[in-house]
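[step 3/7] inverse_fold.run input=structure_tokens len=262
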């Protein structure tokens, strides 16, 4: 385990797609939270330090648009740490070569090196067991995970939080009804893994919150509510993120709970 908690300040920016935006972890007001928000909170509470946090992730993004639209905006904020994940939407398109996806990870690492930023590298959680074409998705996800890890071999300065191999996280109790995004329980488990990789102790219950009582949709309802709209977006070249803005495009301040004003 590395200790990335020392130093004068932490300025953390998360970039990516729906996984990092927090889709599936919806709050009562309709906003989304997600693992990156939880990491910022856990980082502050676990170290007793104020964390500056921004999140530029937008759902539905392919990996190179993430890099092209979010990376330089992120680096302009002069962060100390950047978390990056992407490729889940690319992986669901069999015609997109995985080498092109992996090249994006190399580009992010290169720019972080040039700017002196610590990269927090995540692999996404594995939804394949619950989805149509599960064997194809599993195979492409396994290959992508291996190739990304190979690109950072020997780089002990890269923080790794690898979720794809987590078999428990791939079970239904960690997933939202669309079977493609994690629920709050899943996002907490990913946040615990990221904090662990940073050398910060997460609340123990984050690894496996009590299972949520969500009815599993039948095939007809699932197709109508989730699979059908996803297919229509693919056919029309639209994205669930079209017209959306990043939820935290500039830094917000996360104060440790122990020192927050009552």
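[step 3/7] decode complete -> sequence:
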């Amino acid at each position: 385990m590395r200790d990335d908690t020392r130093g004068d300040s932490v300025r953390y920016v998360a970039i990516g797609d729906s996984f990092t935006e927090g889709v599936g972890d919806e709050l009562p007001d309709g906003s989304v939270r997600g693992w990156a928000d939880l990491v910022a909170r856990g980082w502050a509470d676990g170290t007793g330090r104020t964390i500056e946090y921004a999140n530029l992730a937008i759902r539905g993004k392919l990996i190179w648009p993430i890099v092209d639209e979010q990376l330089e905006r992120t680096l302009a904020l002069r962060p100390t740490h950047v978390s990056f994940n992407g490729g889940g939407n690319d992986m669901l398109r069999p015609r997109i070569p995985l080498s092109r996806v992996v090249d994006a990870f190399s580009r992010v690492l290169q720019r972080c090196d040039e700017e002196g930023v610590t990269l927090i590298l995540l692999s996404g959680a594995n939804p394949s067991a619950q989805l149509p074409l599960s064997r194809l998705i599993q195979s492409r996800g396994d290959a992508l995970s291996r190739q990304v890890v190979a690109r950072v071999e020997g780089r002990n300065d890269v923080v790794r939080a690898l979720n794809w191999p987590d078999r428990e996280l791939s079970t239904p109790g960690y997933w939202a009804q669309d079977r493609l995004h994690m629920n709050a329980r899943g996002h907490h488990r990913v946040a615990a893994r990221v904090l662990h990789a940073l050398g910060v102790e997460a609340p123990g219950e984050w690894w496996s919150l009590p299972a949520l009582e969500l009815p599993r949709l039948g095939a007809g309802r699932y197709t109508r509510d989730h699979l059908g709209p996803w297919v229509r977006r693919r056919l029309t070249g639209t994205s669930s993120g079209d017209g959306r803005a990043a939820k935290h495009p500039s830094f917000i301040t996360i104060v440790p709970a122990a020192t927050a004003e009552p």
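[step 4/7] annotate
The beta strands are 10-15, 51-55, 81-84, 118-123, 159-162, 248-254.
Residues 16 and 66 are 6 Å apart (CA to CA).
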